[in-house]
Write a structure and sequence with these properties.
The protein is of the alpha/beta class. The protein folds into three domains: 54 residues, Alpha-Beta Plaits (2-Layer Sandwich); 277 residues, no CATH class; 68 residues, Electron transport complex subunit B, putative Fe-S cluster (3-methyladenine DNA Glycosylase II, Chain A, domain 3), CATH 1.10.15.40. The strands form four sheets. Strands 6-5-8-9 form a four-stranded parallel beta sheet, with helices on both faces. Helix 3 crosses helix 8 and helix 14 crosses helix 15.
């Protein structure tokens, strides 16, 4: 599997070659070449900002379709906590969970239940590893991928505990195998996702060798069908009690929910990829002191702000707040057997995708060339060249994938220079009128 798998894709037939996406991309992974956007896979962290900003809907998120259920004899749905914030007047999570079974799943395992287990493990880990403070949450795949390619000095600060989706998948598979007696390959563990980053985390996981998730459906895709199923089961007297989570687990759907589960005030919680980058830059500069934990979410509002959701993220957070009001604080607590499934099995490795040269000497020479080109460019960062900034164009030129005349301002100067030379030659009689 490609280690730079991307769930964000481009539909060239819809792309108009505008520069909205290149200006918004936090890792400068997009260029406009020959009138179409081009995504550099190794730069992309699947934050989904280009999907959110594209006025032509040319950016799409790869995910599975509901027909994937037909590939397995027994299927388990893993609903993300953010799913619960998508529905109006929801008073009982069991309506959603029973609706998922009505939709075609054989069983349901709440990711919010696994989130409570992760909170238990995190509290203990943070308390026992003071030398690693502030510890950075590893729950958001886009943030982990961003750190992997851009902030190598912060990799050791990542919390080496599985994201709730991965722990939920492991526990759901174990439960299903015991319940049905079926082998693992005949059981499908399907995640209901709010964002494309979760798809990438399943296809090319970090921190673990292989994800136990077999497929990923988007909240946006199944929402209409799920609403119909929820209406069908809402008034049933035999509604199953399937929920396994309380306030702590449900709170993971919005910003600050994970940090609240640590039961400490010594934390920082930030959302929105631009804000995340600022926090990481300040953390790298050692501007934070006396913090135990940092929670970072690429989407505004947290997972409820994912591009595969349907509700306004701020409205969704209010709905989650109301839903958890009368819930117990937590319904699940970690056991030694569950803790066995919970930790990373592999170290996240730095991927120097942004380096210019193969060694230090070559890199220094190329950086000097970039600086030289930046002095020639106007510094307007207009995007007309197809790159987001003048510096990005200079780096593309040095890498050999662009030309300095791609800058429309330099190209205009070049044309004027040629025109002046032709005019001068004509005046001196060196160019004769054909007539």
């Amino acid at each position: 599997m490609d280690k730079f798998f991307n769930a964000v894709r481009l539909d060239e037939s819809l792309c108009k070659g505008c520069i909205n996406c290149i200006k918004r991309c936090p890792t400068e992974a997009i260029r406009v070449r020959n009138g179409k956007a081009v995504i550099t896979k190794k730069f992309c962290i699947d934050c989904g900002e280009c999907i959110r900003i594209c006025p032509h809907h040319a950016k799409l998120a790869y995910h599975d379709q509901i027909e994937i259920l037909e590939q397995y004899e027994y299927t388990v749905a893993l609903p993300a906590p953010s799913l619960y914030g998508q529905f109006n007047n929801l008073e009982d999570v069991n309506i959603i969970l029973n609706g998922l079974k009505c939709l075609g799943f054989d069983d349901v395992y709440e990711v919010s239940g696994a989130a409570e287990l992760v909170s238990d493990m995190s509290r203990k880990y943070v308390a026992e590893h003071m030398e690693q403070w502030p510890i950075i949450s590893s729950a958001c795949p886009s943030v982990v991928r961003l750190i992997r390619v851009r902030f190598p000095n912060l990799i050791d600060y990542l919390l080496p505990i599985k994201a709730p989706i991965d722990l939920a998948a492991s526990l759901a598979r174990e439960k299903a195998m015991k319940l049905t007696g079926l082998p693992s390959e005949k059981i499908g563990i399907i995640f209901i996702s709010p964002c494309p980053a979760k798809v990438s985390a399943v296809k090319t996981p970090l921190g673990i060798d292989k994800s136990e998730v077999d497929g990923v459906l988007s909240i946006k895709d199944i929402y209409p069908r799920l609403v119909s199923c929820m209406n069908a089961v809402e008034n049933r007297e035999d509604l199953e009690d399937l929920t396994i989570s309380g306030k702590i687990g449900i709170s993971w759907g919005g910003t600050g929910g994970e940090a609240d589960g640590l039961l400490t005030d010594s934390y920082l919680a930030a959302d929105g990829i631009e804000n995340v980058i600022r926090v990481l830059e300040d953390l790298e500069d050692q501007k934070f002191t006396k913090l135990q934990f940092i929670e970072l979410n690429a989407c505004h509002g947290g997972c409820v702000g994912g591009v595969l959701t349907v509700e306004n993220p701020f409205v969704a957070k209010v709905k989650l707040k109301r839903l958890r009001k009368y819930m117990p604080v937590a319904r699940k607590h970690i056991t030694s057997a569950e803790a066995f499934h919970g930790f990373w099995t592999e170290q996240v490795e730095y991927e120097p995708v942004f380096k210019l040269g193969e060694d230090m000497i070559e890199s220094i020479a190329m950086i000097a060339k970039v600086e030289e080109l930046c002095q020639k460019f106007p510094g307007l960062d207009c995007g007309s060249c197809g790159a987001p900034t003048c510096k990005a164009l200079a780096e593309d030129v040095v890498r050999g994938v662009a030309n300095e005349n791609d800058c429309i301002h330099l190209f205009r100067q070049y044309i004027h220079k040629i025109s002046d030379e032709i005019s001068m030659l004509d005046k001196t009689g060196r160019i004769q009128n054909p007539e």
